[in-house]
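Take the subject:
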Amino acid sequence: MISAELEQRGRPVVVLRRSEGANAGAWALLQEALQRGVEGGSRDVIEARVDVFFAELEAVADARRRFRQTISFGDELTRQLRALAEDRKKRESVLRGVPPADQGDLAAELSAAGFRRALKPFQLENLARLMSLPHGADFSVPGAGKTTVALAGFTLGRARGDVEQLLVIGPIAAFQAWKEDSAACLSPEPVLDVHTGPRTVLRDDLDILLTNYNRVAADYDRIRTYITRRPTQVVLDEAHRIKKGEAGVHGRAVLDLAYAARRRDVLTGTPAPQGANDLVAPVRFLYPGQDRKILPPGAYSEAGGRDPHVVAETSGAIGRYFVRTPKSRLELPPTEFDVVAEPMGRIQQAIYEALEGRYRGEFALGVRDRRSFGRLGRITMYLLEAATNPSLLVAGSDEHDQAEFVHPPLELRGDEALADLLRQYVQYESPWKYRRLRQIVEEAAARDEKVLVWSTFVRNLKLLGGALKDFQPAIVHGGVRPADGAPAGALTRDAEFDRFRNDPDCRVLLANPAACGEGVSLHHWCHHAVDLDRTFNAGHYLQSQDRIHRLGLRDDAVTRFTLLLSRDSIDETVDGRLREKIVVLSRLMNDPGLVTAALPEPDTDTDDSVPTVLDDDATALLQALRRRS
């Protein structure tokens, strides 16, 4: 006989054991089917990742049929299989067109359950669809009220006896919104706490627990215990952060928690900034073991996931499993774009061209070699710095830069022409972007307006803090901690946001998208954002825009975005790549208005018969280097 049970071995695994007399062919079939998920075992034991086991249930059934082999399931595994089967039935009922609940009835049920905020029609529509699903995805644009809708779903689930507590996993910047919305929406006000790490006491009377992806991975066992002690709804806020799935530490921890949750929901306004492949991990969280029955094969290829046919097929496949409120439904006033493209100064241009010359040969490596080439990301950072402020090259990344942007100072011997150019630059020239930015801020201050400035690099923010000190800028980056967990007297993000919002002398907020591109609302105080520089990360760019262009804007508000691009530089390559990625996302979500809202020009000259996105960002950069050689 062969037995199988779901066990906790640090993380959940399915343990298969064969006893004497078990069929060798059946055992070999199971070993082959589960090979990609095997984490341990012996000749007679297989320890396989739970997600792989559930994905290979057809192979388990095949082993039973072909070899007439008895395979017994333990109590916990049986319970999980029954829950997944029930999920599948509910999911398939949606495919058969079972209508969602009446919106009027839902509104009345919410009010009776103590939900105090009146939902807008499109929010009620989304709630009705989400509640018809066993687990739901809300891909509405930022600012459409996804937090409110999720809290409404929790209220209904608790009133119906389906769940008793809520766990929200999201970026720290979003915690304040969850706190404020929970207090405004739920009556009585819920018992809410923030999980700051292994030392946090997880009280028995909690209704809502807020944590982030890092903390879940670092304190997995206790978070899982919290989920299993009572029926729990788990919400992933900004769920695109787990797109690496099992390949990422955060994604693996979150996916493992899926089996302990009673209900699962994912929220993100940018679900697939790089293409269809980004949807794999969120779908696996929602429906463990069923993702390959939902997504087309092409979605599992990072490069192929951007092919127009794959995009169209994926969009059709997932259309009934998510809700999305597009920008057009919010009836927001339109955006205005000002693309400022200027040539670099004479010395800056020489520095940039010297860098390109140094690295052109390294970018000319074959695609496979180039992808594994460890210095590629570093070179990209150098080119971005040179196009914005070459003095950053000699300093390297700041200790508070996001991990993906960390890089050492540029390697210089000291006697080459590039070193001489850098010395001249500091003495004789200043970045044109800095000068233009100061002009923008001065003009805004004269009109009694505030400006939000985005830069990838923390050193830029710190330098600009000094250059614009007469405008008393607020600064938010990874080194400025949130109020939760910050030592007494420390500068916090909350205090800086409050100063920007309410202090009339604070005219500028200097921020990087990695730290405050999500979960922050600034649209009541600021209507002009300037991008000093941008990376290839489309999610960061889209999220940053929505800090000031979101639900609640006055009808007469004019939201302006200014993009500063150095001519004949990587800035232009980044601009083109972001355009291509946003077009792909708009097609995946069937939201053509996204392009108009997010880009300076609409998508007017796109041919569906050719790929809309190049193989990868490095390929696009290589082509640009060749054109400028």
About this structure: The chain is about 45% helix and 15% strand.
